[in-house]
Structures are given as C-alpha cells and as structure tokens.
Amino acid sequence: RQRQMCIRDRGKGQAEVRLRATELSYGQQQIGNLKLTLDGSATRPQLRAALDGGDHLLSLDCRGLEGAHWELRCEQLEGLLFLQGKPRRFAIERPLEFEWREASGELRVKPNCVRMEPASLCLNQRAQYRSGNVAGVELSLRRLPLAWWYGLLPPSIKGKPGSYLEADLKLASLAPWQALLSVRIDKVEWVWRGQGGEFPASLEGIVMRLALDEQRALFTGEARSPVLGGLKASLAVDDPGGEQSLDGRIVIDDLQLRTFSWLSATIQQLKGVLNGDIRITGTAAVPRLQGALDLRGGELRDVSLPYPLQRVRGRIELSQDWA
After folding, report:
1. What does the DSSP 8-state code read for residue 160?
2. 81: pLDDT confidence band, cut at 50, 70 and 90?
3. 104 vs 99, 125, 174, 193, 211, CA distance in Å?
4. What is the pLDDT of residue 67?
C-alpha cells in the first residue's frame, strides 16, 4: 500500500536506486514487504533484495562482474517457507552464476542446487537460452517428502511419513518441443477412516513418464498395491498440434472398491473387486473406448438406498464413441 523510490546519481557512471514497498498483495493474497536496492554501474551492478512476508522470507544478493561478457553472480539466495506449520529454510548450494553474451543474444546459467532439507532441486548441467529457444536444461528433484503436502488431503485420509517423490526433467528444446519428464514414488502409505473404522493402505512402485515432441506425446504410468490392486496406463497422442489421434490402454488388476468408500459420507459399506482392460483410440475430440470391466463380489450399503446391494457380479463392455 505504501511505495517509496529513491534515485541518486553518484557520478562517474555510478547510480543508486532504492525501492521500498509495504503490504504488497497479488489479488487476495498478501505477499509482504519488499526492500530492493540496485547500485553500481551498467558494467558492475549490485542487486540486493529482501522480502518479508511473515511466513515467507526471501533474501537475494547479486553482483555484476567485469569480463569479456556480462556476468551476474549471486552469492546469496535463501529464504524461509512454512509448510504444515513448520519453518523450512532453503538456500543455494553455491553462488548462482549467469552469463549474458550480447553479440549472440545468449544467456547461460551454470549448474547449481537449491536445498530445503531433505529435498533438493538441481540444475545438473549448464543451461542456455538463445534466439527464443532453450537447450541443455536438466533438472532433478530428490527426496521431496510427501508429508509436506498431506494437509491437502481430505480429513478422512491420514498419510504416513517416510514417503518421498523424485523427478527428472530434460528439456532439450522449446522450438521444436522436445522434453522428457519422469516421476517416481517408491512407496506411500496412508489410513482412511470410514463407517467401519480405519483401513490401512499403500501403493508401491509408482512410476510416471511423459515424453513430448512435435510428432508425439507419450504418457505411461503404473502403480501396485498388495492391498488395493494394480493399475497400468499408457496414452500416446500423435500430432499433438493437429489431429491429436489417440492410442492408449488402461489395465486394472484386482482393484479393491473399498478403497473408494471415503468418497461419500453416506456410504456405510463398499466391497468388490474390479478388473478391466480398456483400449483408447480415436482423437482427442472424439475418443473411442473399447474393452470390458468385470466386477465380482460387489456390495454397497448406503443411507440413500432402501436396501443394500449384495453379491453383485457383472461385466460392462465398452465399444462406442465417448466424449
């Protein structure tokens, strides 16, 4: 709500700009108070910034270096985030270095890591931006605790600690698109509460992969649980920017329906085992599903039903346009 700016000419090509803003907001979100100082010269600038948002703190200190190319070296980039009510401090592993080559219009960023124990996000090799395109971007995310996000789960589900997410991103080009993303979770455990009490569950070997270029986008994923069953899925989209033809498959292996009893507070009991093998063809505008779903041992008790459904067994065959 309050902003102050001060500009001072120090002579000999030296200048100083100070900016102070309080009670910054974005939409309905309060951001905090910002202090920013930029001084030095065009060839040797110095930038210092501090953001105090109460639960979110950030400080930055960068200096320009003289040389054959314009360089910026940030000795300090650190801050504090509150996740699940606990403060989490993050910081760069080594000075963050940028290099700008004006003649070729090329920006280079040297490898580095941001750490917020036990998690880390690393740029594994030098990345560059030139003529509207990027190259050499390889990011790796390691040991991100899922417990940091358990607060987003419904109240009826309680996640257990000890589960971590890891991911890798390789971005070879933006024009044309060429990227590869993989996500892995070794194991995740939780307990959900229903009318019949608490039920433990887990998923193991969760793997998702997305490969993207101008000719094709391919997604694959799978997960397995000794309690809940298994699921495998794949979907290829040919000509993503044009016709968007589909070629996919979903395989459901002994999926326990009691897994979904928490979806409604009116469900008193839900049982059954679901198997299926479904092919996906057609286009994104008019997809086609072909295959079957088999249910055995189905049972549903719900307060909205006058009588319970018991010993339900059936098969659903899919062979039609679906949108």
Report:
1. P
2. confident
3. 12, 20, 18, 60, 30
4. 62
Question: Does residue 288 carry a pLDDT above 80?
Answer: yes
Cα separation, 298 vs 301, in Å, equals 10
Token output for 80: 């504090």
Checking if the pLDDT of 134 tops 60, the result is: yes
User: Phi then psi for 41, rounded to 5 degrees?
Assistant: -125, 180
Mean per-residue pLDDT, 187-216: 85
- Which residue type occupies 211? A
pLDDT of 29 strictly over 70: no
Taking the C-alpha atoms of residue 151 and residue 294, their distance in angstroms, rounded to an integer, is 35
How many Å apart are CA 232 and CA 8, to the nearest integer? 63
* 320 vs 323: CA distance, rounded Å: 10
**What CA–CA distance (Å, rounded) separates 103 from 68?**
11
Q: Are 96 and 74 in contact (CB under 8 A)?
A: yes
**Nearby residues of 270 by Cβ (< 8 Å), 6 or more positions away:** 257, 258, 260, 261, 299, 300, 301
Q: How far apart are the C-alpha atoms of 180 and 158, rounded to whole Å?
A: 32
Angstrom CA distances, 115 to 56, 142, 208, stand at 16, 10, 24
pLDDT single digits (tens) 135-187: 889 999 999 999 998 888 877 788 888 999 999 999 988 878 899 999 999 99
Question: What tokens were used for 308?
Answer: 């319970």
Could you tell me the pTM of the whole model? 0.79
Which DSSP state fits 283?
Answer: B
Gyration radius of the chain's alpha carbons: 27
- Token pair, residue 201, equals 């569950």
Name the one residue in this structure whose structure tokens are 């968007």. 244
Compute the distance between CA of residue 44 and CA of residue 70 in angstroms, rounded to an integer: 9
